[in-house]
Amino acid sequence: MDSRVQSVKQNLGIIGNSSRLNNAVEIALQIAPTNLSVLIMGESGVGKEAFSQIIHKNSLRKDKKYIAINCGAIPEGTIDSELFGHVKGSFTGAVSDRKGYFETVNGGTIFLDEVGELPKSTQARLLRVLESGEFIPVGASNVQKTDVRVVAATNVNLQKAIENGKFREDLYYRLNTVPITIPPLRERHEDIYVLFRKFANETAEQYRRTRIDLNESARTMLMSYRWPGNIRQLKNVSEQIAMLEDGPVVSADDLRKYLPDLGQSHLPAVAQSASENTYASEREILFKLMFDMKKDMDDLKKLVNGMIQNGTQYSSATLINNPTTEKDFFSNSVVEFQQDDNTQINIVNPTINTSRMRDDNHIVDTQEIQEESLSLANNEVAFIKKALQKFNGKRKLAAEELGISERTLYRKIKEYDIQ
Length: 419
Fold this sequence. Notes:
- By secondary structure, the protein is α/β, with parallel strands linked by helices.
- The chain is built from 17 helices and 13 strands.
- Strands 2-3-6-1-7 form a five-stranded parallel β-sheet, with helices on one face. It has a two-stranded antiparallel sheet with strand order 4-5. The chain has a two-stranded parallel sheet with strand order 8-9.
- A hairpin with a 4-residue loop joins strand 12 and strand 13 (about 365).
- The longest helix has 30 residues, at about 280-310.
- The chain is flat and about 95 Å long.
- The N and C termini lie far apart (about 75 Å).
């Protein structure tokens, strides 16, 4: 390994000798003397901020200011003011002029952590700074200049964010002049035990506890665990064990208590959009209700067949000009049930050309077959009214029955003007 890489890691407390980690450090050292923008990518907890410090401390700006900003921790309404400043009276609470970070860190380095959380309006302002070094404070009309190097970091896939319209593509390419990818801890197996010993020993020394170690089975378990929280999680577990275990040797059974999700499946999960702007939930409701109606119709056909087999009279004993058997007829029929002094069943078969059926006593006109409406809106209104009637107008229960939120039901009621 390059002695310079080893020296930088020691100065910043970076532990580990995996090839991917060393390669990331080498890239950071190579681009440090330049003014190029850098995008550091990696999962949460892998130590992205340490690499921004490598770049700053080995650059020509090392004697200038350095500031790290968590973009996801600043409210959307104030982040423009934090980054670019504002003038007095530009918004409620702006009682005086305020300089933003891009003005106060002029000549230095700004580390924008979680850059993918920036609002679209702030992304446009940041793009202008990167391209021309110019910005306008909130509420001001004069353009200001700044000379700031931007190092950004993210734990989300910015290309997917671009596809979803949440991140500007031009800003992505402007930031991603030189990309650095930090490997997750699960891909640095040889470093896991070394990091555990470091964190556990530091905690034991600080609080005057007995130093602990892991037996062979516990060490194997530690190194095979996925560590979704990466170094941050490993440090937390190490500190807990150092404080709570008497030691000096910790077994696999003892270690398992601090890894609660050990053995659980980590297969990818199917995520569903929570947006109410789509009609996926409404379609699912319609399909469910249609299937329920079909089931009810099948049950009614079975009932009619049973009545026929038991000798019950019905109004379609003779079918004019149609040789279809009873079994074939009912499998293609729409059945109407009419209750009066004499029970009467009207059966309409779409395969029969005639519009009249007769029995021994009288002739019965069948109803004209009307094509079923396929309009989602018409069906939605009918289903919503049916659910509201079922629960006497109680929207919460009706929404649960329909499988949608009460908010969506309220919106549909207003949209279709349902009384």
